Amino acid sequence: MSKVWRAIASFVGLAVVTVPAGAHPHAWITTRSAVVFDAAGQVVAIDVDWTFDKDYSKYAIEGLDTDGDGKFSPTELQALSDSNISALREYDYFVYARAGKKKLKWAPITSYGMANNDEGRLTMQFTAPLVTPVDPRRVDFSYKIYDPTFYIDIEYPKKDPLHAVGPTPRGCHLALLPSPSDEQTNATKAMLAAKPLNWQPDPGEDFGGMFAQPVRVICKKGNS
Amino acid sequence: MMRSLPSLLLLILLLASAPFAATAPAAAAGTTQTHKVAPWRLIVRPRSATGQDIAPSIFTDPLGWVRVQQRIFYDRMAAAMNGVRAHHRTAAWMLMFMSFIYGILHAAGPGHGKAVISAWLMGNERQLRRGIAIACLGAMVQATTAIAIVTGVLLLVDRAGTTARLIAGSLQSASFAMVALMGLYLLWTTLAPMRPAFASSGGHDHHHDHGHDGHDHIHGEDCDCGHEHFPAAQRLKGDFSIRQAVSIALAIGIRPCSGALLVLLLASAVGLYWAGVASTFAMAVGTAITVSSVAVLAVTSRKLALRLAAYDTRWLTRTALGLKIAAGAFITLLGGFLFWASLAISPI
Q1: Torsional class of B64: left (φ above 0), alpha (ψ -120 to 50), beta (otherwise)
Q2: ipTM, interface predicted TM-score of the complex
Q3: A188 within some domain
Q4: B259 vs A80: CB contact, 8 Å cut-off?
Q5: What's the rounded Cα separation, in Å, for the pair B61 and B64?
Q6: Chain B neighbours among A 129-158 (CB < 8 Å)?
Q7: Do A60 and B41 lie within an 8 Å CB cutoff?
Q8: Is residue A186 part of a domain?
Q9: Domain ranges of chain B
Q10: Closest alpha carbon within chain B to A92
Q11: Which residues on A lie below 8 Å from B346 (Cβ)?
């Protein structure tokens, strides 16, 4: 039997030695989002709807059932959602929007909340309002939802990832674009490798979010 | 991973006490009315004022601490598995090679002296040829049985799953759980034969002497792997049909070697199922080679064969027994811990 031991030990040892520890997400989020248009067809806000993985959900709400009824009411989750929203401010709420190449800013978030769904998963909803509304017919509007620190893994579901709130301007539609292919990633890597050490990316570039799926409002030209 | 083994043991202990300890700080926080949520419960990376990453302390948030440890261990495991997958060809060859070597050594190891004696007793060339043929056939049947068992159980787990991502997660967890069960089984088969000896000496005072030791020793030999590799000499005598040969091979092969089961389980857990299948056969080939050479040796040089058989001394058996207990415990812990870590992944 000692040989089995050794065989397993060397096999596992080989596995551990081969590759060092990688990045580790703290939680997984399935994200859905909605583009909010006003009556004039301008983008005014992004509605975000997150569903957390079971394990994180269980951990995050442990001990928060203060009235002991076995359910987690929005009130009981208030402290958690308050803390999350205020902590997320520094990170633009993980929603990075652009008009053309220009980064957009969010006004303070006032509408938000967390809940615990039937599957025992924590959910979080919030509306991120733009400081200045954007007309998607005049300038390309796009956004990505990701954690730049890779602490949280955020992915879109296959079913109903995206929708619009309010009237979508005529000739415009929403598109969830694929994340970059391996070739594109490798091209970027090669490009970065060729740069000198003190090179700084152009502020318009977006390397942190290069693996995230962009959402774009695509409008036909001359159809305003 | 080897380094973190002591901390794993500590973790298991902590897991048991964590739920009790966790309630204390939570209650204390409630009375201060601040409702401050521990930073590692939030969805942003916890950092200190100076921007350093911070982690939960084992004293203030044991549950959070355990969670972080589990996640870290899972990441290492996942990274290691990705490594194995990335180098799957090397890993597959490596696994096959090690299994082959294991097959050779295992059949020659202590406790298998019976095969040597058995071969020596046969003495005649015709029986030897039959014996070798049956041993080889038996090894192959053994490999097939191991593959059938593991594949069957994995398919059952597969059926129980619902979505593709869930299956991937639960299959892996199930494989690890089975590795742990294998470890327990090994411990049991090693320790169980010792129990009657204790029971008889303790319970029946009127037993004349404690001459069980010799008996115990032989018993340990018989139960080595829960299986045999070589047909008993008397079964090879006289007229002999193919059907008889096959039935003896089946009798040998019906009880798979635990080593084969383990290799197959671990291989499938890291996504190298086919390499595991190939390794199982490599192990069988190794076993067949050893058993055949021992048999040939027994006929060509009886003296040497006897000397080899005499290696099966008591201290060697005792050492092997100790190693087996250690290996069983290790495999149980390894499987249990990998199982626990694999639960850290929650497919969305």
Answers
A1: alpha
A2: 0.71
A3: no
A4: no
A5: 5
A6: 147, 149, 151-152, 155, 157
A7: yes
A8: no
A9: 1-86, 91-342
A10: B44
A11: 28, 53-56
- A117 has a chain B CB within 8 A of its CB: no
| Span B82-93, pLDDT tens digits | 677 777 788 888
* pLDDT for residue A93: 95
A185 located within any domain:
no
B292 CA to centre of own chain: 26
Q: How far is A202 from chain B (nearest CA, A)?
A: 24
Express each pLDDT in A186-222 by its tens digit.
777 777 777 776 666 666 666 667 778 999 999 986 5
**CB hemisphere CA count around B347 (13 angstroms):** 14
Contact call for B348 and A55, based on CB within 8 A: no
Contact yes or no for B98 and A11 at CB 8 A: yes
- What is the pLDDT averaged over residues A135-161? 90
Q: Is residue A203 part of a domain?
A: no
Among left, alpha and beta (phi > 0; psi -120 to 50; other), residue A129 is beta
What does the alpha-carbon distance between residue B328 and residue B338 come to, in Å, rounded to a whole number?
A: 15
Q: How many domains is chain A partitioned into structurally?
A: 1
Find the helix packing angle between B314-342 and B5-31, rounded to 10°: 40
Q: How many CA atoms lie within 13 A of B233 on its CB side?
A: 15
Give the model confidence (pLDDT) of B2-30 as tens digits. 344 444 444 444 444 433 333 334 333 33
Task: Tell me the residue type at A149.
Answer: T
Nearest residue of A to residue B319 by CA position? A2
Nearest CA in chain A to B21: A63
Q: Where are the alpha helices (DSSP H) in B60-163?
A: 62-86, 88-108, 113-122, 125-160
Amino acid A132 reads T
Parent domain of A109: 20-178+212-219
- Cβ contact (<8 Å) for B80 and A51? no
State the Cα–Cα distance between residues B203 and A9, nearest whole angstrom: 41
Task: Assign 3-state DSSP to chain A and report helix, strand, coil percentages, each to 5.
Answer: 25, 30, 45
What count of other Cβ atoms lies within 10 Å of the Cβ of residue A224?
13
Chain A CB contacts of B327 under 8 Å are 1-2, 4-5
Tokens of B245: 């040969």
A15 to chain B: which residues are within 8 Å by CB? 80-81, 83-84, 91, 270
CB within 8 Å: A151 and B94: no
Mind listing the pLDDT tens digit for each residue in A78-114?
989 999 999 999 899 999 999 998 999 999 999 999 9
Q: How far is A218 from chain B (nearest CA, A)?
A: 29
Using CA atoms, how far residue B300 sits from B124, B237, B238, B304, in Å, is: 10, 19, 22, 9
